[in-house]
Design brief:
By secondary structure, the protein is an alpha+beta fold. The protein contains eleven helices and 16 strands. Strand 5 (145-151) and strand 6 (154-160) form a beta hairpin. This is non-specific serine/threonine protein kinase.
Length: 449
């Protein structure tokens, strides 16, 4: 503990000292991201290094802005409760607005300001990891990091504002219109493209914490990955994996990673399979309010995914039958592969993208009333098969007419209520991943707008 405390103080001092030096020392100009070799966390982990100076030079080509604490207080009205967006393991997030009155020459835009809670679950190392990865990587499906603040003990991150919030809030909130099928597939495809980009870099990145709360949505429901605090550089050369302590979120982490600490890109693929399953079923990855055998979504649903005759039993009832049967079968088969307990049998994220690409355009969506039959709790429902949609003539490219009759045998509809998933911070310790019941790191209050 003494060593960790000493390291923290050394980093704080070097960060503050170097920030003062920046005002009198011109920064090295780098015009393109590819003109410098990507920085890694070990490059800045030495307590004696000039942290902020290293960051400003190495990330010069990324166009990151260095903000002062006073500028961020001004942009968020001193972190007013009226601008509060949410809180996660990192700390509270506030909406802000930055223009040239706050920072001269800055293009006016709304932002999300994430403040590191020194007493929270994450710390300076996660803050630094986020700056290093998002400061150097640019992709339409990664949330844009605009800048950072490193002033005395204060650590803040400034992101583009994502008005639709997180996938978790959109998918699991009550008393709201459910996400349509095509939107769900668009989100799945966008998130898959983000992971594929990370995995295919010359120096691959393993995201390690892929989950619904870390997928943010813009106004058009374009998915962008956020929160790179647990990201890790992947294996290089002849290495097959990265050995590291187990960190992530219960219900999303791959079983082989939990058991051995061996991290590969296939660990991300498993986590993607869980999120795809959440999109199909409308259920959380872990839900302690459900019957024992249904609490872990992947374990419960995976055996059903490969059986088209029973697939409709686990589809999200909030879709009210308005989904493509052909698309659902293909998505379910893909989720089944991603959730394989044998990592080598999982598809690469590039192959996942190829499978998902056409699904958002499938329009064999039935038209007409729909009544969801709640399965009995006796286990006898396992023998039932889904009624085929005989009125749907074609699977792709044409909309069929759907007028099936449904018998209402049980008027009680399932309720989506769940405690939030705990985050895995070591092999033996499970802690809540979010505090105060708010999960989205950069989400909007105007949920449905």
């Amino acid at each position: 503990m003494t060593v960790q405390k000493s390291t923290w103080r050394s980093l704080v001092r070097s960060c503050f000292k170097a920030q003062v030096d920046q005002s009198t020392k011109p920064q090295k100009q780098v015009t393109k991201q590819t003109s410098f070799q990507r920085l890694s966390l070990p490059d800045l982990s030495n307590p004696s290094s000039q942290l902020s100076e290293d960051l400003s030079i190495s990330l010069a080509g990324s166009n990151l802005h260095v903000f002062t604490l006073s500028e961020l207080k001004l942009s968020t009205q001193n972190f007013s409760s009226s601008n509060f967006l949410g809180e996660g393991g990192f700390g509270p997030v506030h909406k802000g607005f930055i223009d040239d009155k706050v920072k001269p020459g800055f293009k006016a835009q709304p932002v999300a300001v994430k403040l590191l809670d020194l007493d929270g679950l994450q710390g300076h190392r996660e803050w630094l990891t986020e700056v290093i990865f998002l400061g150097q990587l640019r992709n339409p499906h990664l949330v844009k990091l605009i800048g950072y603040c490193c002033e005395e003990e204060h650590r803040l991150l400034i992101y583009e504002y994502m008005p639709r919030g997180s996938l978790e809030n959109q998918l699991f909130r009550r008393y709201s219109v459910s996400l349509p099928w095509s939107t769900r597939m668009k989100i799945a495809l966008g998130a898959a493209k983000g992971l594929a980009f990370l995995h295919e870099l010359d120096k691959p990145v393993i995201y390690r914490d892929f989950k619904a709360s870390n997928i943010l949505l813009d106004s058009d429901y374009t998915a962008k990955l956020s929160d790179f605090g647990l990201a890790k550089d992947g294996p290089e050369g002849s290495d097959t994996h990265v050995s590291t302590r187990v960190m992530g979120t219960q219900g999303y982490a791959a079983p082989e990673y939990i058991m051995t600490g061996h991290l590969t890109s296939m660990s991300d693929v498993y986590s993607f399979g869980v999120v795809l399953l959440e999109l199909l079923t409308g259920r959380r990855s872990v839900d302690k309010n459900r019957p024992q055998r249904e609490q872990n979504l992947a374990e419960w649903a995976r055996p059903i995914l490969n059986d088209p005759r029973k697939l409709c039993r686990i589809m999200d009832p909030r879709l009210e039958g308005q989904y493509s049967e052909a698309g659902a079968r293909k998505a379910a088969a893909l989720a089944y592969q991603c959730l394989s307990h044998r990592p080598k049998q999982r598809p690469t994220m590039n192959n996942v993208v190829k499978v998902l690409e056409p699904l958002k355009d499938f329009d064999d969506i039935p038209i007409g009333p729909f009544v969801y039959e709640v399965p009995s709790e006796t286990g006898k429902e396992d023998a039932k098969e889904c009624e085929p949609k005989n009125d749907v003539k074609k699977e792709n490219g044409h909309r069929g007419q759907h007028h099936r009759r449904h018998q209402l045998r049980n008027s009680n509809r399932t309720q989506l209520s769940s405690p939030r998933s705990p985050t895995i911070h070591s092999e033996a310790v499970l802690r809540p991943s979010h505090r105060n019941g708010v999960q989205s790191p950069l989400h909007s209050r105007a949920r449905g707008k």
